[in-house]
Amino acid sequence: MRSVSLPLIAAGLLLAASLPALAQPKTDPDWPCIQRKAPEIDLAQVWNGPDPATAGKWTDDQEAATVAQRIASRRTPMDEVDVVLQLFAREAGAEANTRLLRVMAGTYEIINTERSRVMHGIERYARGQQRLADRIREEGEKLSQAKATAVMTNVPAESAETKTLDEQLTWDARIFDERARSLTYVCEMPVLLEQRAYEIGQRIAALMKGG
């Protein structure tokens, strides 16, 4: 007769390994990432040039806005970003510095908006994990109680009830583990977006210096 204790022990070990981030006291319990939570990218961390606000509203410059949207997209490789910026600066002529500032303002705002959406998604993901963790704990308690009842009533430990509870617990624990591993990669996304904003800022600054 197969014992139901092994899956239960495995699930317990799985939770012990996967839940420390959720169990530790935090300022924001919905933020599961090791990376510090920052509501938005600090402009000073990605840009050391003139204040982009001095160039006027970037949305009023259609060409600058189009460039900003294109280079802010993660689908656009950085080599292509260089080409797009160089062409834009060349065509802007004497107004290159001002219009490049608008591109920077637009890129910063677009990336910040995307980063905010990603962070809200991570928080929703963490809340789902917490709900699943709570369910796994409840399933473990029910399974333990069912096994204890079986011992007390001198009936086979592997009843239909314990088998169903065992299978559900193992399945939920597996899902939890897979989602926990995925979260490691998801948590990198805000950092990657910030790095992209910085890299684009460096390229724009270099073009402005080169005038």
| Unreliable segments of 5+ consecutive residues | 1-25
Strand content: under 5%
**What's the assembly state of these chains?**
single chain
State the order of secondary-structure elements, H for helix, E for strand: HHHHHHHH
Shape: rod-shaped
The tally of strands reads: 0
Mean pLDDT across all residues, rounded?
82
Helix content: over 70%
Largest sheet at a glance? none
If helices are DSSP runs of H or I spanning 4 or more residues, what is the number of helices? 8
Keywords:
211 residues
What do you see in this structure?
- With 211 residues, the protein is mainly α.
- It is 73% helix and 0% strand.
- The longest helix has 57 residues, at 96-152.
- It is rod-shaped.
Can you give me a brief rundown of this structure?
By secondary structure, the protein is mostly helical. It has helices at residues 5-18, 20-23, 43-46, 62-72, 78-92, 96-152, 160-186, 189-210.
Write the layout of secondary structure elements.
Elements: H1 5-18, H2 20-23, H3 43-46, H4 62-72, H5 78-92, H6 96-152, H7 160-186, H8 189-210
